[in-house]
Description:
Elements: E1 6-14, H1 26-39, E2 43-50, E3 53-60, H2 66-83, E4 93-102, H3 107-115, H4 117-120, H5 126-136
Antiparallel strand pairs: 1-3, 1-4, 2-3
Amino acid sequence: MSYTQLxxxxxxxxxxxxxxITEDHxxxxxxxxxxxxxxxxxxLYRIGGMPDHVHLLVGLPATLPIAKxxxxxxxxxxxxxxxxxxxxxxxxxxxxxxxFTYAMxxxxxxxxxxxxxxxxxxxxxxxxxxxxxxxxxxxTIDERFFLRD
Length: 149
């Protein structure tokens, strides 16, 4: 029997980083995404975020590429958000996303990071956070395309 363990920390943001996910109703969105994950055999270890972005720590089945998963999350939730009166200013998600792989030994660290988003963003902007993720993962930033919608 084959064995895979694919743990991703994914970040999606609203179009132009607009602050359209209110704290009063963010749990509705998170519950909706959780249900979607369950239906796709995706393990959602943690979800959280800010009014302009959402972090997901997920375990994906080997048959589901991260790009496909993110595309599904964004397309399905976009329809749901536009119909939901609690998110009147949501237009759509950014075309970009970030996803980073981690070992299971890092799971608790990432869970805690996502849990503490509100505290973290009191001193660090989303742009700084995103830039740090890319650089720490060994990536390079092309300013021509960085956080452009």
